[in-house]
Amino acid sequence: MQASDRFNINSQLEHLQAKYVGTGHADLNRFEWAVNIQRDSYASYIGHYPMLAYFAVAENESIGREHYNFMQKMLLPCGLPPEREDD
Amino acid sequence: MYLYSLTLQQATGIVSAINGNFSGGKVQEIVVARGKVLDLLRPDDNGKIQTLLSVEIFGAIRSLAQFRLTGSQKDFIVVGSDSGRIVILEYNKEKNVFDKLHQETFGKSGCRRIVPGQYLAIDPKGRAVMIGACEKQKLVYVLNRDTAARLTISSPLEAHKSHTITYSICGVDCGFDNPIFAAIELDYSEADQDSTGQAAAEAQKHLTFYELDLGLNHVSRKWSEQVDNGANMLVTVPGGGDGPSGVLVCAENFVIYKNQGHPDVRAVIPRRADLPAERGVLVVSAATHKQKSMFFFLLQTEYGDIFKVTLEHENDRVSELKIKYFDTIPVTASMCVLKSGFLFAASEFGNHSLYQFQAIGDDPDVEASSATLMETEEGFQPVFFQPRGLKNLLRIDQVESLMPIMDMKVINLFEEETPQIFALCGRGPRSSLRILRPGLAISEMAVSQLPGVPSAVWTVKKNVNDEFDAYIVVSFANATLVLSIGETVEEVSDSGFLDTTPSLAVSLIGDDSLMQVHPSGIRHIREDGRINEWRTPGKRTIVKVGSNRLQVVIALSGGELIYFEVDMTGQLMEVEKHEMSGDVACLEIAPVPEGRQRSRFLAVGSYDNTIRILSLDPDDCMQILSVQSVSSSPESLLFLEVQASTGGEDGADHPASLFLNAGLQNGVLFRTVVDMVTGQLSDSRSRFLGLTAPKLFSVIVRSRRAMLCLSSRPWLGYIYQGHFLLTPLSYETLEFAASFSSDQCAEGVVAVAGDALRVFTIERLGETFNETAIPLRYTPRKFVLQPKRKLLVIIESDQGAFTANEREAAKKECFEAAGMGDRANGKIEHMENGGGDDEDKEDPLSDEQFGYPKAESEKWVSCIRVLDPRASKTTCLLELQDNEAAFSICTVNFHDKEYGTLLAVGTAKSLQFWPKRSFSAGYIHIYRFVEDGKSLELLHKTQVEGVPLALCQFQGRLLAGIGPVLRLYDLGKRRLLRKCENKLFPNTIMSIHTYRDRIYVGDIKESFHYCKYRRDENQLYIFADDVYPRWLTASHHVDFDTMAGADKFGNVYFVRLPQDVSDEIEEDPTGGKIKWEQGKLNGAPNKVEEIVQFHVGDVVTSLQKASLIPGGGECIFYGTVMGSLGALLPFTSRDDVDFFSHLEMHLRQEHPPLCGRDHMAFRSAYFPVKDVIDGDLCEQFPTLPLDMQRKIADELDRTPAEILKKLEEVRNKII
């Protein structure tokens, strides 16, 4: 890699994408975008204890169970991915 | 509008708790995180939990861990928060503060998916800490000591793995080998790509060991192995000679022992016999107990059952894992086993408790073991058990928790001086209605009737060195009664006191003699029984007395003052006389300062509305040093030193200042600072206390002098964590009081009221509210006031529970199975009467302790309750049938007035949230109040097409929010009749407020919509809405154009319709209808403006405008899920806004929050903070070091004392 490459927009973007999960790109599809949003949301619910408690009251589950459920949902937050259209 | 935000009651729920010796030494302490507050608790000798320190950190604490460097005696605290930083704290015993030892930044702030802070793990030998995020990132910091034995922290070492979700991490105990951390991980990268779903189905959780190579300063993945897919938590198993090392993996239904190079040892978690088959058993909290010879684990499941887990092992080979049923307590967020034999259970909802271990579960009980694990075709066979009463634990203390506050109202229902706060708290069987009153709780020790109506009471010691008081002396109109304090309190006649006259003062004088001042003289009783009498000259009588241990001043009628001192021989000698211009209203001498001969100041209050300070120094004896005029004549005076202390348990760090307190005839308490040298008075402040003139008494609270003010209600002025607090006591009106100290009661108060003598102590200092709880049956949702009868109507509903009848039947079965037929019969009758709410304590299966048995998730139980809060009695309880659950309630007067006030309740049948929100029907019930409003009678029930989440009366009709539809109903004979509707709301209507012809509708996701109803055209239409998507959780109508709301993310905000738009709409004959047709993008034509925005950091569930002090301005009160109460007070002057915003700015700079979150960023977490000043930050001013206080004060052109006064003033406007 040449020294100049390091500063072009593409490699900067790649760097960001590698460092920060969820950084988008030009070819991002609807599903990938939604998955990221969902995972971010679940992580936020887990991180904010009062919110976790709020859900726990609504669903009449223990906070620990609610935490676990949200973690589990991070695996496939939006269901199965759509089939890829091979170009 | 500018608001001052102040937390009145800090969050009472607990996120996480850890135990250790944080102050060093042997004392066991607990550090708890309450969301944004970090507390240090200590169980005292009596097993009562005391709060030593409480710090607001302006951030969200997500995890806590404690560690100890080898050879050290003290534990340090590691905090994982939303600050993107790791913070290590040390508790400083001398100053009573948390010292920040290290703060290392590693990422962005906020609770993000890949920024660590969610999990913390500690190497058991205290050599390293791992901090992890939900996904990908894990960082390891090496902890060490430098040459000066100070803690050092390395730069972070990465143990990241992308596309990987982390469920739990923990340290592995491997002695002094390289530190190892274990993590449960799940890789999702393939599942995201595979559209067939095969990869997702095959996704497997792994247990991974990360080794920190201390030599190479590098972290590597050492070992990774598949683990049960239900795994959710890891627990460290002791190693390095104390045990086999490795980890316990808690998974749904199982506990598995795992270690590198060791086969899995798996045992099934016993199941409750009544658990539906679809439900798993998940461990939610764990605690480890380790002694030299043995160790065991306590694991608590999501149903509250605690299991004791033991490992049979030989060296590092584990042969058997046993899980034995231990006890059942309410579900906890964290458990701490203290070395002193206590278990601290931080409940996730409701009160926290401290238990004492009675046994450690050695008796036989239901047990599952890895040795007897049975695998069949349907999987592993579970072991069943039936929960029973506590056998191994004994509850010895409770810490009250309001978490979660579901709804709240501030009403003066009891017609007391200040309104009460009614809060619906708790969940399921632990629900309650709590009545909060501002003030300290007291506990009454004794009440005894006296022969007459006493006028005054004193306590005296016999010797200055005595620990306890010897006599209680009670004065009547014409006699004096002396009671001696011993095992019992009884009347004595050999005390030397004159009992045929009333007394004016009784005290210890000199080292060991007693003094009684009566109208005609002073009686001095020496230790050996000799009595000296000093008689007043002529026919004059003594009217007022002021004294301390060495000085006495009396005021004779006519205004002459005579000053006495105790000389070297213990004699009382007349020193000086002074003629005042008129009669003296009150006298006061400060206590003799330590190491001095006399106190320098005498305060004299006169009926000409002045207070004079006179000198008592021999040089200028009886010279007037200063004069202060007051608004009304003083009734009582008291000198109180706000003590100088460099730290200590109260945390005060400002210089001593002597305050002169005066209770004035108009009910005001007047406080002013006395210059210690010149006696000049300055810096006065006053506060209205009650309808009668406050009488001031000195009492001892936490071994320091405090002030008791008796007006129409008693108040206590004391110093707590650096603040001077003046708080009402929740007790009846008292006449006269004195401090009281005896064997049974070290720091009490004896007081007279009516013809009774009362002894009481003051509990739990520092609390703003004291509470009375009335138990409820299910999770309370909302309540309304039946205004005429002053009754409360509460709706309660729970998902996934059995109805009372089903529970009853199940219990009966269970008792019969257990062969307890006799007891069961009595019990069942009881249940029929009262249901699950008022169980007596002896019940072997109280729901409060064990929780309701779980039912399938489509089952609902719900009830409507009419409660008389005065008698704490339920006058009517209707259980809804057929999985119907109540969600909204309102009282409504239909315009035909046939029935008077009716009650409307919105319900849903078989509501389910997962996998998709569904329900079979929604209803609106209309009830009539019968039997003086004490009971309800169903008029009719109308089926609607959605869940009616909001109901409100509007112009003699009923407005209902049914899903996205706002509909106006009128009352019919058999059902409600539709009159008008608007279907244009975006999601679900969750609140409706009305004012005149405006309707303010809150949408669950889209904030407020302002609507209007046109009667002539019978049309409902939206004329304004908000631009932000706010997920409303609470709303309140502030004024014609303004609404206050709170959203799910912890923000409070106000929106206002701009004045010109509002006027235009009111003036427009079509009511803005023309414009209404011109909205863009489906929005309304007008937009409201956000005028206030503030991030509370906690989900606000209720908002109300009210005033807690009589005659005070109104503020907005809010209650939150974590059980905290706060207030937003509007500023009335621009100067105050300037002052407080500058103070806030300086504090932000000079005193950044403890856990590393930037204050401004925290308060602007979702939207930039607007026009709200954070009072909680301002109130940290007194905890700053002195030079810092002075520096900030200089910049504000004030003195630190003035700033303190300002803070006190603004607080007094709220509470």
Mind explaining what this structure looks like?
The complex is a heterodimer of chains A (87) and B (1215). Chain A is mostly helical and 87 residues long. Chain A has four helices and no strands. The longest helix of chain A is centred in the middle third of the chain and has 18 residues. Chain B is mainly beta and 1215 residues long. Chain B has a five-stranded mixed beta sheet with strand order 89-90-91-1-92. In chain B, strands 10, 11, 12, 13 and 14 form a five-stranded antiparallel beta sheet that branches. In chain B, strands 24-25-26-27-31 form a five-stranded antiparallel beta sheet, with no helix packed on it. In chain B, β11 and β12 form a beta hairpin. The longest helix of chain B is centred in the C-terminal third of the chain and has 17 residues. The two termini of chain B are 20 Å apart. About 3% of the residues of chain B have low confidence. At the A-B interface, α2, α3 and α4 of A face α1 and β24 of B.
Instruction: Output mean pLDDT of chain B.
Output: 90
Radius of gyration of chain A: 18 Å
- Describe the main β-sheet of chain A briefly: none
Number of helices of chain A: 4
Strand content of chain B: over 45%
User: Biggest interface and its residues per chain?
Assistant: A-B, 38 and 64 residues
Pfam family, one (chain A): SF3b10
InterPro entries (chain A): SF3b5/RDS3-10 (IPR009846), Splicing_factor_3B_subunit_5 (IPR017089)
Family (chain A): Belongs to the SF3B5 family.
Protein name (chain A): Splicing factor subunit
